[in-house]
Amino acid sequence: MFQDKIVWITGASSGIGAEAARQFNRLGATVILSARNEAKLQSVQQTLSQPSRSLVLTLDLEKSEEFESKVQQVLEKHQKIDILLNNGGLSQRGEAGDTSLDVDRRIMEINYFGTVALTKAVLPTMQKQQSGHIIVISSIAGKFGFFLRSAYAASKHALQGFFESLLLEEEKNGIKVTIAYPGKINTEISKSALNASGSEHGVMDHNQETGMSAEDCVKKIIKAVQKNKKSVLIGNKEIYAVYIKRYFPRLFWKIIKKQKAV
Fold first, then answer.
1. Which residues are catalytic?
2. Three-class secondary structure of residue 103 per DSSP
3. Residue 210, exposed/middle/buried by CB under 10 A (0-12, 13-18, 19+)?
4. At what angle do helices 115-129 and 67-78 cross, to 10 degrees?
5. CATH number at residue 69
6. Most distant CA pair in the chain: distance in Å?
7. What's the domain range around 72?
């Protein structure tokens, strides 16, 4: 299914993005690796099974004015974009009452506006092709709020609203959308998370350390794409909270407030 496809991945320098690059590449795809840190992207590139079938393209989700030129660079090299995997983003570790509004704005700018802007930059190409698949890495925090995650949860809730709407509107153009909602995944996302003052959290949280491997997470994402699923929950027992909230809301609130925030 992915042989000779062009797969553009944001946040590809580590975690889910880096693992997605490896797995799509192994399945025959040419991968475009994007993030801010070129050196880290090049390190990931060297771990690919077919590094010659890849392109390192630095991208900062806060600089949407550059996205059109980035799209043109991909098209000049590969003439098409089959899959856009919106994985880049920033987490949070700080109570809402203590968090600067500047931090709220930055998280929303990266996680929501950056993702939406890049998608809109790619969309005309997919519309012209009359084909394409957009994958969005949301979070279980996109299904309910949680301690220390107010801005992060807000950004992920916003992504669901936008991309479910896009899914309906672009079906006529042959464009598919899959929204993934990972729970606790063993990545370093907590280390780069912003605290209330806007500094990096810098700690590998217990929730991440004991979570599902990035490898297993990406396998489930790819399986969902192969099955053309519109959404997929990924994780261990924590994902059951989504169903408990839906069917047993009073029980949900009793359970969730007892969970560890980190």
1. 152
2. helix
3. exposed
4. 40
5. 3.40.50.720
6. 54
7. 6-256
